Amino acid sequence: MYFVSRQNYWGVEEDNQYVVEIAFGGRDYANPDMLVPKWGDLGEGQEFDDPRAAATAAIAIWQKWVKEEPLAKIGHGATLGYTMPFEPSDIEEVIKWSEFEYSSLDKCANCYSILPEDHWFHYYDIDIKYCSENCAMSAYEDELKYQASLDVE
Q: In degrees, to the nearest 5, what angle opens at C-alpha 45 toward C-alphas 89 and 93?
């Protein structure tokens, strides 16, 4: 999970005080200096499974906020449940990070979407993971058809 919020960090230089934050781990791993969501329609105050969607939301929010608060920045990271202001990044770095993060996530063996925490698998091969029961059954049926085609020849 990736949580997007606007932050007013304390104890940092004034230049780095206002940050649109993308926190890995979800809402529980965001810094405690969160402002009340102002642009919820853009994704502020929301959790995302896809880091690319979180980055897109954060950039859109930053573009709105920087008009009101010229010192606003974007940052991403993981607090691990502690208070840890994130280092500001530029838009290109946030996009690169989100693409890299996405590429490292486990994907469904059938439809290639991001796997949820409670993914599915078949008992005959628990290393192959699926995003849903539907994908698991579809893959199983495809395997049965393939095996049947081998028996015909």
A: 15
